[in-house]
Write a structure and sequence with these properties.
Elements: E1 5-7, E2 19-28, E3 47-54, E4 60-61, E5 64-66, H1 68-71, H2 85-99, E6 107-111, H3 117-123, E7 128-132, H4 136-144, E8 149-150, H5 156-165, E9 169-175, H6 184-194, E10 195-206, H7 208-211, E11 226-227, H8 230-239, E12 242-250, E13 256-263, H9 272-283, H10 289-315, E14 320-323, H11 327-335, E15 345-347, E16 364-366, H12 368-373, E17 377-380, H13 386-392, H14 394-398, E18 402-405, E19 411-413
Parallel strand pairs: 6-7, 6-9, 7-8, 9-10, 14-15, 14-17, 15-16, 17-18
Antiparallel strand pairs: 1-5, 2-3, 3-4, 4-11, 10-13, 12-13, 18-19
Helix pairs in contact: 2-3, 5-6
């Protein structure tokens, strides 16, 4: 086995060996490792991409784990570029501060703080903030942006550094990064150590029970080790001295959950929402193998339908360009085997311009190029943002171009 990847044969939460693979995708390179001109000749490795479930505690996870340090070498994703995410964070921060009566100048620590977008929202609520971000360039950007950020993984040493410099945290947030943690039990225990006695741990993460309803399989990639339900999070937190007091479904990423936890036997009451969501999970098929088998079969049918359409268009001499350069689009390209159908990708994110896609090294350009070249069709790989893309680039349609939306059902916008 490659030194950068290991195959776990026991559950990382409960240590059970009763684990089964439930969904296999095609081998894929690290999905965010876009490369520059000077490195496009270097072959990038592909790694197994599978989902497994623990039949004991219900934990859905990647059994093949790529070393996190390998994933973050050239990490360039900035949360601020995701459409609608900054306004979502503003609403998020205000709600936490208001609902839980967080006093001004309380210490807020954001883990995996990225470019500081979430903490900037808390700063606007008059909070003291510090971020922890392992990606060097992004941490530098956040510091330049005025959000104090520690460039490191969330280790025991970092916990001690925060405690000595700032004290205990009143709120610790983990936004779309909790799924990226390898040693999830140790990490959560470290959170408990950093929290003040009446502090809150707030996690927002993708929610596969909702995502898979819309066939959003491309949220599966090597950085996402874990795919949580509220039931599994509750089990994990209880192991680590925490208890969930509130849970709610949120809209980003095709379906997410936000849970709020406190130290066990804390003063705040446990709201009915927690038991309600766990009950609905237990009554659904989310812990059953059948759901994942059905998803795999429907994805295979969609792949065949899409590639048949693209082959027909190419045979007629139609030009096709792809839209979207991100983690999820890499998963989609590889699993649906789309690399031969377009010559380049366009994206609104300037950081991706002049880059080449992971593995296949398809060039990425500004969306200006689609107006110069005027391709017949644009395949929206970033299909979760199709409404924003079609609205932002309505001129392309007015000029006679057509958008292909591949998921959750294939259709053409013209």
């Amino acid at each position: 086995m490659d030194k950068f990847i290991r195959n776990d044969t026991q559950c990382r939460i409960c240590e059970s060996i009763d684990i089964d693979t439930i969904l296999k995708l095609n081998n894929t390179p690290l999905e965010e490792q876009f490369v520059g001109e000077s490195n496009k000749h270097i072959e990038q490795k592909s790694y197994p991409l599978e989902l497994a479930i623990c039949n004991n505690c219900g934990y859905v996870h990647l059994p093949y784990v790529v070393n996190p340090e390998e994933s973050y070498i050239d990490y360039i994703y900035k949360s601020g570029v995701t459409p609608g995410l900054r306004s979502h964070y503003d609403e998020y921060a205000k709600k936490i501060v208001t609902k839980y009566n967080i006093k001004k100048k309380s210490l807020i620590v954001d883990l995996g703080s990225n470019d500081g977008s979430m903490l900037a929202s808390f700063k606007r609520q008059k909070m003291n903030v510090v971020g922890v971000e392992p990606a060097k360039l992004i941490a530098e950007h956040a510091n330049q942006y005025g959000v104090e950020t520690i460039n490191d993984f969330f280790t025991d040493e970092v916990v001690l550094k925060i405690l000595s410099s700032y004290g205990h945290a009143d709120v610790i947030s983990a936004n779309y990064m909790f799924a990226n943690i390898d040693d999830i039990v140790h990490f959560t225990k470290s959170v408990e150590n950093l929290l003040s006695e009446d502090g809150l741990f707030v996690v927002e993460t993708g929610y596969h029970p909702e995502q898979f309803k819309i066939k959003m399989f491309d949220y599966i990639y090597h950085e996402h080790f874990s795919y949580f339900t509220v039931g599994v999070l509750s089990y994990l937190f209880n192991q680590c001295g925490l208890e969930i007091i509130d849970a709610q479904k949120t809209k980003p990423k095709g379906g997410s959950i936000r849970v709020v936890a406190q130290k066990q036997n804390g003063l705040r009451e446990i709201l009915p929402s927690v038991a309600m969501i766990i009950k609905s999970e237990n009554e659904s098929k989310i812990y059953q193998h059948e759901l994942y088998r059905d998803l795999g079969e429907s994805l295979q049918a969609l792949r065949l339908e899409l590639t048949k359409l693209l082959k027909r268009l190419k045979s007629k001499g139609k030009s096709i360009v792809a839209f979207g350069a991100s983690h999820s689009t890499t998963t989609l390209i590889y699993h649906f085997e789309l690399g031969d159908f377009f010559d380049y990708i366009v994206d609104d994110n300037e950081a991706k311009h002049g880059q080449y896609s992971p593995g296949l090294h398809i060039p990425v350009f500004s969306t200006d190029k689609m107006y110069v070249d005027r391709p017949d069709y644009i395949l929206i790989l970033a299909w979760q943002h199709k409404d924003i893309i079609c609205e932002r680039h309505s001129k392309f349609i007015e000029n006679g171009g057509k958008f292909i939306v591949p998921l959750p059902n294939l259709y053409i916008v013209e």
